[in-house]
Amino acid sequence: MLQDRIKELKEERNAIILAHNYQIGEVQDIADYKGDSLGLSQKAAKSDADVIVFCGVDFMAESAAILCPDKTVLLPELSAKCPMAAMITAESLRAEKEKHPDAVVVCYVNTTAEVKAESDICCTSANAIKVVNSLDDNEIIFVPDKNLALYVAAHTDKKIIPWEGYCPSHHFIQRSDVLTVKARRSEAEILVHPECKPEVIELSDKVLSTDGMIKYVKKSKAKEFIIGSETGILYRLRKENPDKRFYPASDRAVCPGMKVNTLDAIVKSLENMEHKIIMPEDIRVRSKQALDRMLKVGRDD
Ligand code: 13P
Ligand code: SF4
Fold it and tell me: Is residue 164 left, alpha or beta, with left meaning phi > 0 and alpha meaning psi from -120 to 50?
């Protein structure tokens, strides 16, 4: 069985498998740790494994490699990409900084190492408000997710300058999608990810990162939930809460990059030690400053 082979290879390589909450079920099932972007970065930073197989998308594996220069970080499938991270380059961010010389840059972790290297501090969906409010500065260029930027702007007195990026999987969840499910499931609580549009966020009972949703559902007295996020998270929510019911706000909210890692790809990755995340040392060191600064702030949810 592929699961047995993975176990064998993990021991041979002294490897751990980290999987994001949007990964396919069988990948989540063999992971040593499942989590959101912040949780996975924290886990990578603390791990004493020699090899980290990162089952997520490119920027997540890159963050692990930035934080763990002494470890080998492997991304099983090179096509595991985040389209939002591709919506900003270091060059375009430098041009934006020139337009706002007094502003500091907060960058969502869904960015390349080069963009992180141009930023003052990173954030994730689990700590964006806390990160922004931790700064002494009043003017903030917030990249690349405009929806997250608008959500943060509504919870701070600081001036937020948003970038025009977005997550296709979350941005195209419509208000009408949520209202249609709610009409049939009137008792359900609505949980949404902050990458959703403001008019969708407005309908929600709670705005949470993916780990925030996992934690909230366990504590909540509600029995039914409408989930405004990538549909992969429903696997974990259902598995860990068999007595509760979960409905996706939209079945179309699927992130293709999150679905390419398979058990086969993990076996190949560990057998051939592929694909190693490698970057120029100066970029790694500069981007690490922004990530380390974020890790000191901790979680919001
Ligand atoms: P989380 O950090 O909340 O898991 O979100 C990551 C992501 O890519 C959401 O689309
Ligand atoms: Fe990127 Fe959206 Fe996919 Fe997350 S769900 S990895 S933000 S495209």
Answer: alpha
Is the distance from CB of 225 to CB of 240 less than 8 angstroms? no
| 219 Cα–ligand 2 center, Å | 26
How many structural domains compose the chain? Answer: 3
**Amino acid 299: pLDDT:** 80
Please, what is the end-to-end C-alpha distance for the chain in angstroms?
38
Rounded to whole angstroms, the Cα distance separating 90 from 98 reads 12
To which residue do tokens 């992971």 refer? 31
Same domain, 107 and 161: yes
Check if 58 has its Cβ closer than 6 Å to any atom of ligand 1. no
Question: What pLDDT, on a 0 to 100 scale, did the predictor assign at position 147?
Answer: 98
- Closest ligand 2 atom to residue 57 Cα is 6
Model pLDDT for residues 10-19, shown as the tens digit of each residue: 999 999 999 9
How far apart CA 143 and CA 137 sit, in angstroms, is: 16
- For 187, the domain range is 169-254
Output the six-digit token pair for 195: 């990458």
* DSSP character string of 213-243: HHHHHHH---SEEEEES-TTHHHHHHHH-TT
Pocket-forming residues, ligand 2, beta carbon under 6 Å: 57, 82-84, 110, 167-170, 195, 230, 255, 257-258
* 121-123 and 15-20 strand pairing: unpaired
Mark whether 148 and 215 lie in a shared domain: no
User: Do 11 and 72 lie in a common domain?
Assistant: yes
Q: Report the CATH number that the domain containing residue 222 is assigned in CATH.
A: 3.40.50.10800
Do 290 and 149 lie in a common domain? Answer: yes
Q: Is 167 in the pocket of ligand 1 (CB under 6 A)?
A: yes
- Is residue 89 located within the same domain as residue 46? no
Clarify whether residues 182 and 240 are in a common domain.
yes
Question: Is the pTM above the cut of 0.85?
Answer: yes
Nearest CA residue ID for atom 6, ligand 2: 82
- Tell whether ligand 1 has an atom less than 6 A from the beta carbon of residue 127: no
